[in-house]
Amino acid sequence: MTIESAYAELLTHLNRIHRLETVAQLVGWDEQVNLPPDSAGLRAEQHAVLAETIHAAATNPKLGDLLESLEDASLDLRDDERVVVAEARRDYDRATKLPASFVREKAAQSSVGYHAWAKARASSDFASYVPVLEKNLELAKQEAAYLGWGDRAYDYMIDKHDPGMSAAVISKLFGELKEALVPLVRQITASPIKAKRELLRGFPVTGQQAFLREVTEKLGFNYRRGRIDVSLHPFCSGSGADIRMTTRFNEDEPLDSLFSSIHETGHGLYEQGLPLAHHATALGRAAGMGVHESQSRLWENQVGRSRAFWRYFEPRFRETFAAQTQGVSSDELYLAVNAVEPTLIRVDADEVTYNLHIILRFEIEQRLFAGTLAVRDLPEAWNAAARELLGLVPDSDRTGVLQDVHWSDGAFGYFPSYCLGNMLAAQLWYAIKAQRPAIEDEFARGDFSGLLNWLRENVHAAGKRYDALELSRRVTGGELSPQSLLRYLRERYLPLYCA
Ligand code: ZN
């Protein structure tokens, strides 16, 4: 077999796996958006069959043979082809190196874990959750060992979500961020100036729907290759040719649906900007969770919370909600958009304090994996960290250690991506501003195409060729660091709260 035909055959396999994965995603999207209440049983079986089919395709021994022959001929491959082969190898190893018995055990534990978490959270009963978390931690370490990361289990978990990242790198970045962010938050929250989000009440859902559709279209989301629907928790799924975003509506929290829609639109724009012909390979896939979050957060925060954005959209907002915005001044509206207040709950946090929630979780995960913190001592460690970082102490484990779903199915090492995304977003933002100093004037005219094209060219087009650290170097000219994020937060929030 020639190299060309081996490579072509590899692509055929990867395309098939990708198409199957998109079907599974569609079925998962439908479950959260449309599923009739008594149809969950069938849906679970559909998921199981699909997962089995995908696993069979991803572990096909033919794929292993093709990878081996392509790796042997590596010197004759083009750079792009080498990227595709390396990523396919990574996936193939992950799919084949875990014994079937382990995969079954983990899947079963994931379902047990979710229900145990939901029950423990409802009754704020951490003790009942301890054995589940201990088991999940054990399984994570076992998984790392199967994949050859035995002595670096936490790094393995991080690398799973953010290729190339490690606990040591994150530890340095977060340490630097924490040192400057804690006093900045104190400074902002000590201000007598407070946002009054309660001024925004009674916004009809139909108006909210129309407004966010207008906003997301203006930002550049292509509704001929995607849609937005309603679900309990907002998310974005699918592959660039068919993106499914969701939001949720509350008549008394119009900014919640708007900003979650802009956030998901950022994810959607990234997926739609990945090279269409290469969605099945590393050339057309997202670079990792941190980079993905950098896209959603850049649109949500740097763009959506800016003066320039509101200069264009405020008149449209007032037109759509004439009665509701009567008596709300422009400054009050802008301050509500940029409300900062420490909260115990991560998902309710503003963009300033949000990062502290992530630092808290990262520090705890590190100690869990190092064995210096026992699962049963988690609530105490959590509450101490919340007091130190947020100045708040949970009144129960429900608002403390039990608030997040992630650990219930063993998703350790996922949280840091959110904060890495914030750092990268700010760093990209200053790189864009250096190259297009008038970019905010474009926003004020309702033109976001300059920003989107810049991101398409510099971030989206690269697919998975570079990890977050390398992307930062190539696109922003500097190492990933918290300094841009700190600069951005100071520039946005100090004039508002501490002028
Ligand atoms: Zn996101």
- Strands across the major sheet, in which order? 1-3-2
CATH topology of the largest domain: Neurolysin, domain 3
> What is the CATH architecture term of the largest domain?
Orthogonal Bundle
End-to-end C-alpha gap: 70 Å
Q: What are the bound molecules?
A: zinc ion
Overall tally of domains: 2
How many runs of DSSP E, i.e. beta strands? 3
Q: Helices and strands, in N-to-C order?
A: HHHHHHHHHEEEHHHHHHHHHHHH
In short:
By secondary structure, the chain is mainly α. It is built from 21 helices and three strands.
Describe the structure.
64% of the residues lie in helices and 3% in strands. The chain is built from 21 helices and 3 strands. A 3-stranded mixed beta sheet has the order 1-3-2, with helices on both faces. A hairpin with a 2-residue loop joins strand 2 and strand 3. Helix 6 crosses helix 7, helix 8 runs parallel beside helix 21 and helix 11 packs across helix 17. The relative contact order is 0.12. The mean pLDDT is 96.
